[in-house]
Specification:
PurM-like_C_dom, 14 strands, 8 helices, PurM-like_N_sf, 60s Ribosomal Protein L30, Chain: A, 359 residues, PurM-like_C_sf, Hydrogenase expression/formation protein HypE, five-stranded mixed β-sheet, Phosphoribosyl-aminoimidazole Synthetase, Chain A, domain 2, 3 domains, alpha+beta
Length: 359
């Protein structure tokens, strides 16, 4: 035991963990640990952070804003293990670029450079790898970022799913920009930039021969241009997040718990397209928990609501932007939704993930 109280014993004593089930009952990793919900949070809090000790920044998030010699930069890294590799509207290559670009953009940064690391399974066709690599290049050009460094590794046949991708990125943060979950406060208007649940349903439609009567295409897209348009209004934007794993529900719960505020949603205002609603109804899923890859959630000062919405709706990626709720002082750390029947329901943090391997 070190002086700072962090154990350095290589053996983890699970009886001393304070997290709830199912971690206590599972001495091994399960798929839910990668779902972006409660299990992911518990893994970070009770395993990674204690193991990292004083080397870790307890504010670990999707991106970090750092001051490097007077220059403010955002830094982010992400890994992509989506199955299948291609799906309606995109591929693992698009996700790898857009996912990291968007994590940087949610700090208000202008993405500048990316690294790429390919983990390839032995036996994967070179033609398939070339298609994914071309998708990475095309997405980087569209996002106006440079691919400046990278790595390639190969794993034995049967120990991967063809291609895994990791990207890391650096962006520049403008003077006066301060966008982080801790800044959400009562009175803020909660805005989403368009239809939710699209990406998760698009990936799901490729699995097990599922068909929903219509093609749903992924919404994967780089969002930094939309964020720049929002910042150009001069509005006081407190918090931005892209609701990927765990969907809108997980993202709002994380912000509410970080800022110690409540969030009240109007369920009737949620922009759920008919195809997503029908697919979720068929499979018993809640669209609030289904992943997105080209949408953002914003917490803005109520005085700036209309200016921000106007700027978002004038941008191609924000044309369907809508206010879906407000930040409230009641029930801090909790998200509730007002239903169409006039009641309320708790929108809790998901334990694991409804749809595994969606990014």
């Amino acid at each position: 035991m070190r002086e700072d109280g962090v154990s350095v014993d290589a053996t983890i004593d699970m009886d001393r963990w304070v997290c709830p089930r199912p971690l206590r009952d599972s001495p091994t990793i399960v798929m839910g640990h990668g779902g972006g919900g409660a299990m992911s949070g518990e893994l970070i809090e009770h395993l990674f952070l204690p193991a990292f000790g004083a080397a870790a920044d307890a504010g670990l998030g999707d991106s970090a804003v750092l001051d490097l010699g007077g220059v403010r930069v955002a830094f982010s890294t992400d890994s992509f293990v989506v199955k299948p590799l291609t799906f309606p509207g995109g591929s693992i290559g698009d996700l790898a670029v857009n996912g990291t670009v968007n994590d940087l953009a949610m700090s208000g940064a202008r993405p500048m450079v990316l690294s790429t690391a390919f983990i390839l399974e032995e036996g994967t066709a070179l033609a398939e790898i070339a298609r994914i690599a071309e998708a990475v290049g095309t997405a980087a050009l569209a996002a106006e970022v440079k691919l400046v460094t990278g790595d390639t590794k190969v794993v034995d046949s049967g120990h991967g799913d063809g291609i895994y991708l990791n990207t890391a990125g650096i962006g520049l943060v403008g003077e006066g920009v301060d966008i982080r979950p801790q800044r959400a406060r009562p009175g803020d208007v909660v805005i989403v930039s368009g239809d939710i649940g699209v990406h998760g349903v698009a990936v799901l439609s490729c699995r097990e021969g599922l068909e929903f009567g219509t093609t749903v295409c992924s919404d994967t897209a780089p969002l930094h241009g939309l964020v720049a348009a929002m910042l150009d209004t001069g509005a006081d934007i407190h918090t931005l997040r892209d609701p990927t794993r765990g969907g809108v529900a997980a993202t709002l719960n994380e912000i509410a718990r970080t800022a110690k505020v409540g969030v009240s949603l109007d369920e009737r205002a949620l922009p759920v397209p008919d195809a997503v609603r029908d697919a979720c109804g068929l499979l018993g899923l809640d669209p609030l928990y289904v992943a997105n890859e080209g949408k953002l959630i914003a917490f803005v000062d109520p005085a700036d609501e209309y200016a921000v919405l106007a700027a978002m709706r004038a941008h191609p990626l924000g044309a369907k932007s809508v206010a879906i709720g407000v930040c409230v002082p009641e029930h801090p750390g909790m998200v509730v939704a007002r239903t169409a029947l006039g009641g309320t329901r708790v929108v809790d943090l998901p334990a694991g993930e409804q749809l595994p391997r969606i990014c």
